[in-house]
Specification:
The protein is mainly β and 198 residues long. It contains 2 helices and 11 strands. The longest helix is centred in the last third of the chain and has 13 residues. The radius of gyration is 21 Å and the shape is elongated.
Length: 198
């Protein structure tokens, strides 16, 4: 695989004009060339980049990064979720050809940042939701529910409670367990990053 110019710049630690020359100011921008090649962190979990059909060439000259070729139609884009000020520009999402989020990418604050990683994402997930505020006896109480998601889309929601009664063995609320049981019934392998994408 021939090496695009921007890969060479990253390996040498070249920084953008106008930026500080300190390591913490290293540009962590991911650049994808027209053929789908991009420099990704070597640390991947759970699994490997090949699980997603991404081919890898260990020719980047880096212990932390690899040159990768994304499948046709896949792309990386900035993750706009608010984070700490220092790391805001270092988070990306990997989208497949259908626009679904397949991985979260942290490029690190400098070229060989050991924290850089790629986290492969499941299709289905769960989240705790605050529904409303209830006031009883002058004390604020939160209405809480749990929901199952297919990517960003909610597909099932538990009942709402004003208190989370956690099981002493599982550490889970009844509402969270309800959602987990629903997913297990309808999508038995929902916790796998490899399942239900086809």
């Amino acid at each position: 695989m021939s090496t695009p110019k921007f890969f060479g710049n990253l390996r040498k630690g070249k920084r953008s004009r106008g930026r500080s020359q300190e390591p913490s100011a290293f540009s962590c921008q991911l650049v994808q060339d027209p053929s789908g090649r991009v420099l990704l962190p070597r640390n991947v979990f759970p699994g490997t980049l090949s699980d997603l059909g991404i081919s890898v060439a260990d020719s980047s000259g880096s212990d932390r990064n690899v040159e990768a070729v994304l499948p046709q139609g896949w792309k990386v884009a900035p993750d706009l979720l608010p984070r700490g000020k220092q790391d805001t520009d270092c988070w990306y999402l990997l989208f497949d050809q259908k626009g679904r989020r397949r991985a979260s990418i942290y490029t690190g604050n400098w070229l060989e940042d050991p924290r850089a990683h790629v986290m492969l994402l499941q299709r289905f997930g769960i989240a705790r939701e605050v529904e409303e505020w209830n006031f009883s006896g002058g004390r604020p109480r939160i209405g809480v529910a749990w929901a199952a998601y297919d990517g960003p889309t909610p597909i099932y929601r538990s009942s709402t409670t004003t208190a989370l009664e956690e099981d002493s063995l599982t550490g889970r609320s009844a509402q969270e367990q309800e959602v987990r049981d629903w997913l297990k019934t309808h999508y038995p392998d929902w916790e796998s990053h490899l399942s239900y994408w086809d």
